[in-house]
Amino acid sequence: MGKVAVAFAAAAVVAACSVAGVMVRRRVKSRRKWRSVVEILKELEEGCDTPVGRLRQVVDAMAVEMHAGLASEGGSKLKMLLTFVHHLPQGTEKGTYYALHLGGTYFRILRVLLGGERSYLDVQDVERHPIPSHLMNSTSEVLFNFLAFSLERFIEKEGDGSSSQGVKRELAFTFSFPVKHSSISSGVLIKWTKGFEISEMVGKDIAECLQVALNRRGLDMHVAVLVNDTVGALSLGYYHDPDTVVAVVFGTGSNACYLERTDAIIKSQGLLTTSGSMVVNMEWGNFWSSHLPRTSYDIDLDAESSNPNDMGFEKMISGMYLGDIVRRVILRMSQESDIFGPSSSLLSEPYVLRTNSVSAMHEDDTPELQEVARILKDLGVAEVPLKVRKLVVKVCDVVTRRAGRLAAAGIAGILKKIGRDGGGGITSGRSRSEIQMQKRTVVAVEGGLYMNYTMFREYMEEALVEILGEDVSQYVVVKAMEDGSSIGSALLVASLQS
Ligand code: BGC
């Protein structure tokens, strides 16, 4: 071999070695990046861990905070608001009633026809529309004019514009935000939640605002009750089954109410003359306990939200926020590795990933996870390999499992407070026999997260059995109440007339 040939051969060997070197280095680098992503997932799993022992601590904390909130005004992060609802619908109500429900994402209008017996409940003309986003930070006048206008159009469809009974139409206003009531039909807004920001409305009487707007449009309607959505759900639950004593909403936001003995509402003794019971709106979205498993994603989400340091529990368990927690985890993974390809600026946009997309990815049962691929593509993340899509599903699972399990702990906390958890409860004057005798207890549940996200629902129900044990959970029935918040509040108006 000539000198030139030797030099060529040597150069070829060097080139081959360096190509191989580059490939090995790339493989090592890509493995290192994958490992860092797996680390992020592991850290998330640890941070969101909810073993039953921890859930029981949350149960106890919930029951203790309920007591504190009932004992004194401002005694707890749980406001435990009076609703002045002493009686729930019995099933004998008659007549035609209307309901308007302002929720977090939708508003609904419906008419209910009641024939005097439980089996005669006819829900007519349910209208459900997304709340136009500009209304969320408009003015109270703009918001209420819009609601009055929507009611007017609804009524126009009935025909002659006057009530078929020749009397004023009785309307229930379901308002899914915290209100300090002075009666069943009046109360002022305490604060906004779920991204609403119309600051001049805080402190205003909500029912009056609606009544004024209705009068302005010449509508022959009377705002007969103002209720929280949880109270509506409880009313429908009770109408169908008088063992219903608790109602919970898992929707854009989350909250619970329950039937409490008036003598246990210590902060209002002297004010509440009616003996018996009253529905208490807990506003549990604001519950907080050091036992809640909080991650850096929750801390950042809270700090960047429109209501920092507020509604901590809601931000871990409700539909408005689950998508954004998942987005934050994926964003971090994409920043610390290139497994999602070139970084997408869309992923940095708050709330761009909605919880219904999380549910669609989580429940994607196609072998290639095509739904996950489609949703990631909409987020500007195109063509990631199957193992990355699987990783995204895992993130959805961890975040939703924590939410479902904490939601169950919240419910068990209420059961504990009212002595229906099979244990001693926190007694506050309850007799021993009352505690020991396990009663059938129905929990009415409403809200899009619960209704539409099967995995959330399953995790919640499974954890409830885990916390209460098989024996006690036989007595606890969780019942879905579709549109309960609106239908139930119309029933409440009916029960006031009868
Ligand atoms: C509100 C509650 C409401 C819940 C569910 C929360 O953000 O504060 O009043 O019941 O959302 O809609």
UniProtKB/TrEMBL annotation:
Membrane-related topology note? Single-pass membrane protein
* Localisation per UniProt entry: Mitochondrion outer membrane
Query: InterPro entries given for it?
Result: ATPase_NBD, Hexokinase, Hexokinase_C, Hexokinase_N
Does ATP-binding show up as a keyword for this record?
A: yes
Q: What are the EC numbers?
A: 2.7.1.-
Q: Where is the Hexokinase C-terminal domain?
A: 246-494
* ATP-binding is among the record's keywords: yes
Which EC class is the enzyme in?
Answer: transferase
Keyword set for this entry? ATP-binding, Glycolysis, Kinase, Membrane, Mitochondrion, Mitochondrion outer membrane, Nucleotide-binding, Transferase
In its UniProt record, a GO molecular function of this protein is:
hexokinase activity
Q: Where is the Hexokinase N-terminal domain?
A: 41-236
Q: Main localization of the protein?
A: mitochondrion
**One GO biological process from the UniProt record?**
hexose metabolic process
So which domain of life are we looking at?
A: Eukaryota
Q: Name one GO cellular component term.
A: cytosol
User: Which biological pathway?
Assistant: Carbohydrate metabolism; hexose metabolism; Carbohydrate degradation; glycolysis; D-glyceraldehyde 3-phosphate and glycerone phosphate from D-glucose: step 1/4
As for family, the record states:
Belongs to the hexokinase family.
Question: Which PANTHER family does the protein's record reference?
Answer: HEXOKINASE, HEXOKINASE-3
- Name recorded for this polypeptide: Phosphotransferase
Quote the gene name from the UniProt entry: LOC108813963
